[in-house]
Specification:
four-stranded antiparallel β-sheet, elongated, 8 strands, 142 residues, 2 helices, single chain
Length: 142
């Protein structure tokens, strides 16, 4: 379980977001460590529960709430030859092609060099440049 703070209008169970690095004003806030430093920049998190405690925030006029989050799994595309459920890999695929599957090939929440575990294998992806790709659900491995 990871605690962080989210604007009240976004503090809902199931809400998913990509962690940022905070604004300049955030560094002076007494909640900086909980709000910003508890999360890894660029990673995707999902709110698992919302606590009733609220705080004022200089960035978010409506204030913020304490939420519990977990790092989310990621829909991604990897070469078919590496798609083995339960296996570990290192994300290294890169593509500049503009196609309907680009968000799977270059998904939010993972970067080149990150280790991951394959949780499940989904469908084959029809790659316009001929790569043999498969959509998988992965989880970042620390």
């Amino acid at each position: 379980m990871i605690l962080t703070l989210l604007p009240k209008n976004l503090a809902k169970s199931g809400f998913t977001f990509v962690a940022g690095k905070g604004d300049k004003e955030c560094k002076e806030c007494r909640f900086y460590k909980t709000c910003v430093e508890n999360l890894k920049v660029g990673r995707i998190y999902t709110v698992s529960s919302v606590r009733s405690i609220e705080h004022q925030c200089p960035i978010h006029d409506s204030g913020v709430k304490i939420v519990e989050v977990t790092e989310s799994s990621i829909d991604a595309a990897i070469p078919k030859k590496y798609a083995i459920e339960g296996s570990t890999g290192i994300f290294s695929f890169s593509c500049n092609e503009s196609c309907p599957h680009h968000d799977f090939c270059i998904p939010d929440g993972i970067k080149i060099g990150d280790k991951y575990n394959i949780l499940s294998i989904k469908e084959k992806i029809d790659c316009p440049i001929g790569n043999h790709m498969v959509r998988v659900i992965i989880k970042i491995k620390d």
